[in-house]
């Protein structure tokens, strides 16, 4: 029963997250009651997603770190800088929207990218290592990115943000790998399958709860917010395209190219939404949450393009 449910959710993931977003927007008075529990639920999502990772997987990738370094540069230098530039170019009079755009592309790669990499036969050890490393570094990279690109224009408690990110992402990821280590890999063979359905439900809970805070801005849509949505769509699509393009420029094999494409294209939007809800005005969350409408759809679209290219 649970296995069938998990397969169903994975198959329709491109529709599930936008549906959860719409539920939170349509019923914010109900959805907002979940907000206090979001950090703990998100920690469970991270733990569940990292259960297939081991310390030695990370060590093996570090022996040939080229692809990993390229992905991290795209994730945390090129794309956030592009988002910041686009924000100032098109929405220079609204610092909240610019902050939201930068935050959307400052968060780590998405744990759910592992699912897409598996479906399209990518380099799983590389993707696992990226997710774990990027997740562990998130408490340092996110505040640093915001500070470097936005500086004094943004007021935030970086120390508190780092503590929350350590709780939500770094500690659960390390705990999952440590559990694999002490059980000699037995946990990674049994727990991921059992926890996967609950992880999907947890993701739905996080998206629905967080979207209650963005409800007023989506309900009161104006031309500026439509432009923000289009900018996020273009930037998100560019992330996938850049990952694939850079992989080919550096002559990486197809499996590595798949991992680089999904690694640079998919973001842990739920983490961004949690940060936006906790530390910034509501309008900052709009660019972050609107990304949930596109991410899974883009992942499926680029996956189909991959499949067609492979057939050719």
Automatic annotation (TrEMBL):
The chain crosses the membrane at residues 12-31, 67-91, 97-119, 126-149, 161-179, 228-247. Keywords: Membrane, Transmembrane, Transmembrane helix. It comes from the Bacteria. Pfam families: SBF_like. This is Bile acid:sodium symporter family protein.
